[in-house]
Design a protein that fits this description.
Length: 52
C-alpha cells in the first residue's frame, strides 16, 4: 500500500516556484482578456472581424 508524502517531505526542483509564477501570470492574462472581450461584447463593440 502506498502512502502520500506529507507536505514537509516533498522536495521541489529550484525552477518550481518560477513555473508556478508563470502559470499564475498566464491565468491572470487569460482572465483579463476574457473580461475585456465581455466588456466589448456587452457594449456592442465586439463581433466577428469586419462585421462591425
Amino acid at each position: 500500500m502506498h502512502t502520500q508524502p506529507s507536505a514537509e517531505e516533498v522536495q521541489y526542483e529550484s525552477w518550481y516556484k518560477y513555473g508556478v509564477a508563470c502559470l499564475l501570470l498566464e491565468m491572470a492574462i487569460s482572465i483579463a482578456v476574457c473580461g475585456y472581450s465581455l466588456y466589448l461584447t456587452f457594449h456592442g463593440w465586439g463581433g466577428f472581424p469586419g462585421k462591425h
